[in-house]
Structure formats: structure tokens, C-alpha cells
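Form 7-S
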Amino acid sequence: STSSMARLALRIALLAAVVVACAALDRPSGAPKQSPGKYLKQFLKPSKAEDAIDAGFVTIPGKAAWALKTTSYFGLWYFFNIFYNVANKKALNALNLPWLQSLVCVAVGIPYILATWQFGIREAPRLSKQQMKELLPIVSLHAAGNVGGNVAFGSGALGFAHVLKSMEPAFTAVFSGLLTGKWQHPFVYATLIPVMGGVAYASASELNFNMLQFVAAMVSNVGFSLRAVIGKQIMSSDAWDRKVTKLDGPNTFGVLQIGSTLVTIPFVLAIEGWKALIPSMHPNWKNAIGKLDHAGAMITPGYLWNNLVMSGMAFQLYYEAAFLALDAVSPITHSIGNNIKRIVIVITSVIIFGQKMSTKGMIGSGIALGGVFIYSLVTDYFSKKAKGASK
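Output:
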């Protein structure tokens, strides 16, 4: 129910607070002071430190002001991510239209994206025709990663799909070396062994393992990792100066969402038919009406519309919150938060959908997720060491 989801989200916010509090220990408190009004006005503008808040009768230290803002970012990130995964899974279970669901994920947030540009919340991107052409492969990879993820989420246990998708850093590390010729320290690649071994062990012992889910998750990993590597290559040139293109994190994501919508529509038409673009006319919609979902709730047109729209909007907003969190903390803290998020989703899928994992599956999943955590730490360590040596 909505109330139970809200209670779960509040618990997740507290968990996020622990992550952020650990990272906040070395944050400067900031000598200057700011008014509560200024603090609230800039609440959605992340920073690595905050001035103290002078409320007249009490002064809130800068560390506490920063921690409150950043904890809110992490809380929103987790909150919307839970809602996305639950609503997405409900829609996939009811309709079994993964291409439509993939289109929903990229298309529903477009009015929000356009509104942020139209009303000056963010500066609209400025791209030439040549730059738009250069973005096409990145857009296509974003669409492929999204479709692969939805096929994986819909064809098996949600929690196990996230365990499979935890291998994305391994793909990114390998593709980065192959495409750029710049390989990381051998210890970085050594940390990928428990990730791959844990996933292999969990896959071998997963009670409901199916090859479609495995292949789809790997397609998603390949798509998103290549998107990151190729995107960085293309957008690192002087022609892609952020001051000119206005392509910060949220704007880049917005452009990818719009482009992926255009790329995905033809595939929806080809694979699931034109009626999928008007879901209430599709046979799967009519077949779903009147049935019971995993919790015994009656599936109605309102049920289906709510989960379709909510999953698409939550997808957009959880990425927005993730970018806010990234701008407020170090990359390693953000990576730790992302790793905890996957663990939370695995637990959430067991609680809400009753999709239990075997003991061996849980052990393998734990090894894989722990490997991702170690990978983040080791990567950060050698990255800082390389920067220090280059000075």
C-alpha cells in the first residue's frame, strides 16, 4: 500500500543519513552565515559545503546544514528509486509489454524536462546539428540499456535482476581500457573477480534462474557502460565545453531521455504493435483487467495507468535526485550510496513481491555487491594516487 511504501521510504532516508553522516565528518563548517530563507531557496543547488544558518534564536552549524541538505538528496534518490522499481515491476507483471514500459521510462518525464528549460529552472542545452549527430550512438546505447533492464526486471525476480546489473562497473572498466587504451591498476581489475564470481554463484543457485533475464541484464550492462565510456570520449573535446553546451549531468540525461524516446518508438511499433502506443487498446491490457496482482489487489484501468505513469515519473525524478547527491558528495560516497541502493532494492523485492532467494543465492549476491563496494574504494584510491603523481 501507499502508506507502507511511505514508511519504508522513511526508513531508507534514515539509512541514507548514516551514509552521508559518515562522509560529513571532514566537511568544513564554513565561517560565513546565511539566512534560513537563502538556505531554503538554494536547497536544490548542491554544494560540497554549507555556511552556518543564522535563525536568530539559534545557529545551525555549517556541517549540520550541509548534512541535512545532502541527506535529503539521498533520501529522495532512494524514495523515488523504490517507487520506480515497485511501480515498474507491477506494470511489467500485469501487461508483459517491456518495450512499452521502456518507452514509458524515457517519455513520461519529457514534460518535466521541457518545463525546467522553459521556466528557466535550468538553462536549455545549446547543441549544433553536428553535435546532435554525434549524440546518436550515446542515445541509442541509453535506449538499449533501458530496454535490457526492463526485459530483465519483467522476466524474473526483481532483486536478482539488480544483482545481475551490479556487474555494470566491470563492463565499464573493461570497455574503458579497450576503447581508450588507458588501463587501470591491476588491483582494480582484481576486485572485479568477486563481482563476477558472486554473480556466477548466485546465478547457478538461483531457484528461478532463466536465461532471458540473464542475457537482458547483460545487454543493459553493455549499453549503459558503453554509453558512459563513449559519451566521455565524445564530450571531452573543446567543442563540448559545458559552459557553451550547458550539458551538465541533469541536462545530459534530459537530452538522452528525449533522444531515446524517438529511438524506442519504432521498436515498440515493430515488436508490440501500434496498439501498445495506446495501451488501453492492446490485448494485454484487456487480458489484465479483472485479475489479481501479487498482493491480491484487483487490476483495474486506474491501477495500470497509475503504475505506468508513476514508474515513468519516478524514473526521471530518481535520476534527478541522484545527480543532486553526486554534486554534493565525493564520487566514492556516491558509489557507496548507489551500492546500498541495490541492496535496498533486493530487500524491497523480497518484502513486497515475495520473490525469495536461496541461501546460496543470497551469499553470491552478497559477494557480488561487496565486490562492487571494494571496486569503488580501490578505484578511488588509485585515481587519487595517479592525480597526485601527475602534479
